[in-house]
Design a protein that fits this description.
- The structure is a single chain.
- This protein has 154 residues and is mostly helical.
- It has helices at 14-38, 45-57, 65-80, 85-99, 108-124, 131-143, and strands at residues 8-9, 12-13.
- Strand 1 (8-9) and strand 2 (12-13) form a beta hairpin.
- The termini are far apart.
Amino acid sequence: VSLDLTKNIDNQSLIRAFSFSRDKEKALHGLKGILTGIVADAAQRKELLFLDVWISSQHFLAEDEDVRDILIRVGDILEDGSIEQQELQQLEVRIEEILSSKDIDSDGQVAQVEELIGFLSGIASDSLLNEQEVEALSDWLRANESIKEIWPAN
């Protein structure tokens, strides 16, 4: 059985449709990690600037209604210059809703690695490493032990 990769779904080639879903999943897991990393020690100006750059790099996802909702919420956070605990929780809930939807078929370990990379990026975004961030990272690694032998967790 051969698959016609030139077939269109929602006016996109089949290859692009699969790639978009994978990119969407990767971006959302990365954002989840970034948010965890930048709030590990209370977000600072540099960390919020990093988040702003991340949003700018995700323009290709802006056509997706779910991702657009996330981008708007992150934009609101950037506008007022701080991340309140309630805003973070609402964002995490929304990200989880999108990730658990039927259009994203997540590989658990790949998702955890993407989240870890985002987390490390968030921690490193202000060029400072402090005890709170190290503790938050240690907690995350203990909670996600199944990837302890996979780079960059190892």
